[in-house]
Specification:
Elements lengths: L1 H20 L5 H25 L3 H15 L14 H23 L3 H22 L1
Helix pairs in contact: 2-3, 3-4, 4-5
Length: 132
């Protein structure tokens, strides 16, 4: 009896998970996902390079990251789409912080790159919490 209950419960979770994650992705949404995947990949590489003190590699990753981030203002958020002005402000703040990080990388200012990295990550967390 318990095993039947367990199987049915797990089947319900699987079905619920499939429902939540199954949707038809438009070309625009696919582009957004690809841009965010690139953003995450390059942010990870940038942080790793900064931790190692490799400003040249960090700068190269940052340039790719900035290119992907340039598309943010055209995104349609998954949640809270009615708050587009807030979303655009978050995107503009992110882009500005990336620009500031680029200057700090160019100046090889480790303390400033660390501070800006924390600010950027906090902004990512806030934006994803509200719009993803």
């Amino acid at each position: 009896m318990v095993s039947v209950f367990l199987v049915l419960t797990l089947a319900g979770f699987v079905q619920a998970a499939e429902h939540v994650h199954s949707h038809t992705m438009t070309p625009e949404m696919h582009r957004q996902h690809m841009a965010m995947d690139l953003t995450q990949k390059e942010w990870t590489a940038c942080r790793k390079s900064l931790s190692a003190g490799d400003f040249a590699a960090a700068g190269a990753s940052l340039l790719l990251l900035q290119k992907a981030a340039g598309e943010l203002e055209e995104f349609q958020p998954h949640r809270n789409a009615q708050r587009m002005e807030d979303f655009r402000k978050q995107a503009q703040s992110f882009i500005l912080n990336l620009s500031d990080l680029g200057k700090a990388i160019g100046e090889r200012d480790k303390a400033r790159t660390q501070s800006l990295s924390r600010t950027i990550e906090k902004g990512c967390t806030q934006c994803h919490g509200a719009f993803r």
